[in-house]
């Protein structure tokens, strides 16, 4: 039993961590980051506008905490 737990612990230590995104250092990096965020949000809103509002996917992808209840 102890050997199994040690093996599981050792295997979990080899797992690859999620990629780390460093904080932007210059104003140009910050601006590029903000532009990317705005582009992704605009695309999300565009897709949500044409999506069927009665689906689970709409509830999952297009609603935000604090949105008014439909």
Order of helices and strands: HHH
Radius of gyration: 21 Å
Instruction: Give the termini separation.
Output: 53 Å
Largest sheet: none
Structural class from helices and strands? Answer: mainly alpha
Oligomeric assembly:
single chain
Low-confidence stretches: none
> Overall mean pLDDT score?
80
Count the strands?
0
Bin the helical content: 55-70%
How many H/I helical runs? 3
Sheet-strand content, in percent, reads under 5%
Shape by Cα distribution:
flat
How would you describe the overall organization of this protein?
The chain contains 3 helices and no strands. The chain is mainly alpha-helical. The longest helix has 24 residues, at 27-50. The N and C termini lie far apart (53 Å).
Descriptive key words:
mainly alpha, flat, 70 residues
Task: Write a compact overview of the structure shown.
Helix content is 61%, strand content 0%.
């Amino acid at each position: 039993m102890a050997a199994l737990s040690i093996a599981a612990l050792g295997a979990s230590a080899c797992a690859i961590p999620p990629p780390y995104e460093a904080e932007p250092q210059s104003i140009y990096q910050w601006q590029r980051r903000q532009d990317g965020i705005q582009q992704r949000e605009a695309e999300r809103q565009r897709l949500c506008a044409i999506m069927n509002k009665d689906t689970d996917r709409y509830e999952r992808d297009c609603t935000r905490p604090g949105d008014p209840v439909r």
